[in-house]
Each structure stands twice: as structure tokens, then as C-alpha cells.
Write a structure and sequence with these properties.
125 residues; mainly alpha
Amino acid sequence: GTSWLVMSGTWLHFWEMAIEWNPTYFEVGRERWTWDRLWRQQLRFYPFSLAHLIAIPVAVLTLIRSSSRHRSLSFSILSAVYLGWLFQTFFFQHLFDYIHVPELMLAITISMSVISRGIRHLECI
């Protein structure tokens, strides 16, 4: 990526954006981040935002237990990606709806996976 930026002549523009624009972007983002805006965003995504109530604890437990047991590698990776995306959207991004759609899709995937495993487990009893 860096060599392409240098060879294409866009390195200086990238550097300007990284040094001059990004600090202002982050500063403005912190000023506009409020609990009220977060709450209204969750209401706009309702009922899908409820998936976080299942996905966050499941993802954390999956990563904690993945080191002690032979858990599914793909589910551990999915959990890590979800928690990483969730972290960066809430701490580095603005509260714009489009930024939070991927984390919501990951939360729904994790939640539905756990729910379907629970249903299959109940059917076996």
C-alpha cells in the first residue's frame, strides 16, 4: 500500500490527510459523542441492536475459553473481529449509523449461531 502511494504520487496527499485532517476529525467526534445520541442510535436499530446483549458476552467468553479448550477456530476469529470492530466504532468513529452496520451484522451472526446451537441441543434431549 505505501509503495503504491509513493509510486502513484498520492503519498503527500495521504500524509496531509493523516497529519492535518485526522486530529480535527477525532476532536469533533469526541465533542459530538453523547449518551443521548448513542441511545437514539440503538433505538433506530431496534430490535436488531438487542443482538449485542447476547453477542458481547458470548464473544468475550469464546475468546477467554478458546485458550483453554479446543473451540472452533472460525468462531473464535468471528468473536475477535466482532469485538475489535465494536471497539473501534465506539472509540474511534463518529456515531453515524452506517459505521455500525457491520458490527450489528456480526452481532446477529454470533447471536443466531449460539441460539441455533441451543435449539439443536434441546432437540437432542
